[in-house]
Each structure stands twice: as C-alpha cells, then as structure tokens.
Design goal:
Number of strands: 10
CATH superfamily of the largest domain: Vaccinia Virus protein VP39
Low-confidence stretches: none
Distance between the termini: 38 Å
Radius of gyration: 23 Å
Helix content: 40-55%
CATH class of the largest domain: Alpha Beta
Largest sheet: 7 strands, mixed
Number of domains: 2
Bound molecules: S-adenosylmethionine
Shape: elongated
CATH architecture of the largest domain: 3-Layer(aba) Sandwich
Order of helices and strands: HHHEHHEEHHHHHEHEHEEHEHHEE
Strand order of the largest sheet: 6-5-4-7-8-10-9
Length: 351
Amino acid sequence: MSKKTIRAVDALQEAQKIAFAPFVFQTSVTLKNLGVLDYIFDSKCAVSQSEICEALSISEYGLSVLLEIAESSEIVTKDEDEKYELSKIGYFLNYHKMTEVNLNFTQDVCYQGLFHLEDTIKTGKPQGLKELGDWSTIYEGLSQLPPHIQKSWFDFDHFYSDEIFVDALNIIFKSSPKTIFDIGGNTGKFAIQCCEFNNDIQVKIYDLPGQLKKALANAEAKGHGDRVSGEEIDWLSENPKVQEGADIIWMSQFLDCFSKEEILKILSTSVKAMNADTELIIIETYTDRQKFGNAKFILEATSLYFTALANGNSKMYKATELIDLADKAGLTIKEDISLGEYHTMFICKKK
Ligand SMILES: C[S@@+](CC[C@H](N)C(=O)[O-])C[C@H]1O[C@@H](n2cnc3c(N)ncnc32)[C@H](O)[C@@H]1O
C-alpha cells in the first residue's frame, strides 16, 4: 500500500478540521437555515456582511462568527472589498440534492446520538438511540418519530432507493412474475410502483407492525388496496416465517439493517419458502462496488448510523460479504447487475 506524503503543517491543519468538525457542520446548517447561503447566491454579485445582516435581520456579531469559519472552511470566499460569494463547496452544501439529504439526516437523525458512539462500541448496543426514543432498534420507532426527524430519515432512505426502482422494475418484470413479496416494504413505495408498472401483479409486504400499517394505508390511498397485502414479521423474533408462493422475494436496502448472523437467518428462512423458479433479489449499495470516493465515504458514515442509532450491529457491507452469506444460505447468484450510480442487484435462485 502506498503511503501518502503530507507536510506536517498541512497534517496539523487537517487534524484541526477533524477536532472542530462539529463546529463547521453546525455553522453550515445555521447558514443554510437562516437563508444566508441562498441570499449570497441569489445576489449574483459579491455582498457585504452588513448587507446580509440587514436583509436577513441577523446581528453583525452573529453573522461575523459564522462567516469567519465559513470562509476558512471554504464555504464562502471573501474578496479584497470584504464582500462574500458562495464557493463551489458552499453551492453543493446548499443546492446539491444528495448533500442536502445527507446533511439533514446527520442533523435531525444522527447528531445527538453519535455522541454515544464510544459506549455503543463498548456495549454492542445502539446507545445513541435513546436520544430519539425508548426502543431497542430504530425500526420499532420509525412510525413514531417526530415529523421533521421522520422526514429526514425517509428522505435519506428514499433518495438512495427511488432512483433505481424504475430500472429494477424493467428487469424483474421480464420473467412475468404474478406475486412479489417485498421484504422490508417500508412506506409501500416499491409495492405501489409495481402496481403502477403492471396491472396484474400482487404484492405482499412483510414488515414490522407500525411500518406495515403505514405501507398498507399508502397503497390503499393510491388505489391499490386490492393488490397490495401485508404480513407482520419481526425477523429478530424466535421463528420468523415467510409464506410459499412468491415468484419474486424482493429485499431492497433491507439486509444492511442486520448483522451477518441475522442476514444468514433471513436468507435461510426465505430459501425454505422458495421453489426452483423463485427469484430472490437483493439490492444493496456495497462499499467495494463504488466508483467514487465520496460514495464510499457516505456508506462508511451510514454504517456508523447503524452502529450508534439503528441497532448497534449492522453496516453497509462489501459485495463479497453478501455473496458469501448468500452461498451459505443455499442461494446461487444467477445475475450480478449494476444499477444507477451506487447500487448492485443480485438475482438469486435456490441451489
Ligand atoms: C432501510 S428500510 C428499506 C426500505 C425499502 N425496502 C427501500 O428499498 O427503500 C428497512 C426496512 O426494514 C424493516 N425492518 C427493520 N428491522 C426489521 C425487523 N426486525 N423485522 C421486520 N422488518 C424490519 C424496517 O421497518 C424498514 O421498513
């Protein structure tokens, strides 16, 4: 492995960025929420601090502390007349959809819980979850989270799955399935899209009670109540069961919510419900299948959300780890397809 060389003075600067990372993060959130980034960008030309203060009713003192660190963090630039413009980093922080979803997820869902990371690692329990509610995993409480936290959680979840659903539907309907089991159907989004894609498909959602209730209500509201059914399941219970009869068992961004041992249990249980023609489809974002460094970084951060807040024992996996677990559970991967920018789809059959 090649060692990167870095001058001591630069390394020291990088170390300060980490030591004060929460300060820069909270400054970004505050500048965004107060409308400062919008105002600077919309002004088209550089603007002075006092102009921003007046337009947005922020004190000179308040804005000065924010803009000083924002300039050092290259979120804004200041010219020789002491006027500010948005940098490229500031632009992405304010207007790039993925960055917005990540920022809101960090602030609303994770920020306070991450304080308990060390305890989580020591105990193997998601000690940060108590900042959101009194549950043993976040999934038990998803349907009860306060609306703005719930919105940030779902925006994050949906951002990383919505874009591949259309591509995925075109692939999975090639085998003319009649029945799909959506394991971890969440809000019913995928089930609804299946019904809109094909007039005959029947979808059964398997999820925890609170989430299942919401998913079925959403499907009903979209006029698909007759084709979307559901069954409550807790995969962490003693003896979870899936009915036989599915043409496709669909698991999208679901297995990353569990430890390796639990994934093996889920896949082995599902294999028992499969016949020779059933396809079990796994969609995940794998750390070893990313083209860009920033995508790998996002997945590594997401793992820490699972650690400190979600359940204390799951993560974003490497494709090689899932391939190994599928094999142990009695599955062969018939097709290995890259979907969109981040996702991989495994189409598996029973061995
Ligand atoms: C990350 S979401 C996946 C959402 C959706 N499949 C997608 O692609 O966007 C994980 C889902 O798994 C469900 N889940 C988590 N733990 C579970 C458990 N122990 N038993 C049953 N479902 C569970 C959650 O309620 C949630 O709907």
